Amino acid sequence: MSRFHSLLFFLLLLTGTAHATAFLPVVAVPDTAQLTLAEAEQRFAQNNLLLLAQRYNVSAAQAQILQARLWDNPTLSLEQNTYNPNTRRAFDVTRRGESIVQVQQLFAIAGRRKAAANVAQQGALVEQFNLEDLLRTLNYQLRTTFFDLYYKQQTVGTYNTEINSFQRTLTAYQNQYEKGNIALKEVIRLRAFLFDLQTERQALLSEIATQESDLRILLRESSGTYFRPTVNDSRLQALSLTGFSEEQLADTAQVARADLRARQADVEQQNQNLRLQRALAAPDLAVGYVYDRAGSYIQNYNAVTLGVAVPIFNRNQGNIRTAQAQIEQSRAQRDQQLLTVRNDVQEAWRQAQQTDALYQTATRNISDFSRLIQGIEQSYAKRNITIVEFLDFYESYKNNIVQLNQLRAARLRAFESLNFSVGRTVFNAE
């Protein structure tokens, strides 16, 4: 097959695809809603199911504090003879029958109840910090998804504008080809370039669909709403590292990071557990009262009972050693987390510095490019430039907008990563 016939076959294939697309059924467009970052965070805090589940964990841990402070229930026992041979009565409850009533109350000594309550209190604190850390992680995911969506939708808008403009150009040159004024290969090149634009746009729409799904899950939105994030561009551009230092942010992170505070609370919980285990080595005191109607040396016998286990063999030695080992383990985990926090801040700081420096040196005003591309279209229509030059300008224009939006998104993601590593919203775009 000659080169001309190959080009002709490709043109027919693209033409057939275009005609087939024109007859596709109309797809229902989902409801579209404008969404600010503040609105997204509010809906997220109220509706997110993972946060709701962790809040139940906090409530359950707080209930254990109440449980640890409760007294042991008293024990009430009743003994009644089944048959009295003297009176020949079954279950004789008269004055001549035998009945024994005993009440016993267990008292924890050596501060066991207080120690158990302290352990439970630290456990609830750990769960509270775990909730805050989950909130930090999910909020980072929400904010980065929000800004990524915003800039990808801006890029799609650029593709839409360029495709519509290029479609008009292609239609005009298709008419010129049909009149015999231009060569077939020129129309084929234009169609191939348009197809590339449409393919890139479709790939970007697939990425947006995935992130829209992630955003709806974070917001607990089941209606399939298509969100259009809205931002304050001037606030985004004004974000700066000026006035902050890596050391300052690292010190802030040691106070603000919930995962580190959870490890510190875990160390204290293990210390309280050691106190509890030592308290458990002391025996409980059982105090009771006994009433015996006819079975003692006198009628209506009343007595007070005291009972205590003698700690000869079991002094809770194994649990005390286990608690001591758990203290050392929790301290090692805390130190490891502290090292992780400092390294997170260092890496996020460097990434933010590099990305922001690149952004500051980039040309962010695209109006010159927009005016230039209009002139390029006119020059091509007048045949002052070749099709290769025309497509090269178009490709450069498109790449500049796409890369600029990618850089903007990467810069916002770097600032959000720095917020995430610090554990506090230091750089706020809203």
Q: Spatial order of the strands in the main sheet?
A: 2-5-7-8
Total number of helical segments?
11
Unreliable stretches: 1-29
- Strand share of the residues? 5-15%
Radius of gyration: 38 Å
Give the terminus-to-terminus CA distance.
61 Å
Count of DSSP strands:
8
Based on secondary structure, the structural category is alpha+beta
The average pLDDT value, as a whole number, equals 87
**Range of helix content:** 55-70%
Please outline the major beta sheet. 4 strands, antiparallel
Order of helices and strands: HEHHEEEEHHEHHHEEHHH
Tell me, briefly, the overall form.
elongated
Q: What is the compact description of this entry?
A:
This protein has 430 residues and is an alpha+beta fold. The protein is built from eleven helices and eight strands.
Verbal overview:
- 68% of the residues lie in helices and 10% in strands.
- The chain is α+β, with helices and mostly antiparallel strands.
- It is elongated.
- A hairpin with a 4-residue loop joins strand 3 and strand 4.
- Helix 4 runs antiparallel to helix 11 and helix 9 packs antiparallel against helix 11.
- A four-stranded antiparallel beta sheet has the order 2-5-7-8, with no helix packed on it.
- The N terminus is likely disordered.
- It contains eleven helices and eight strands.
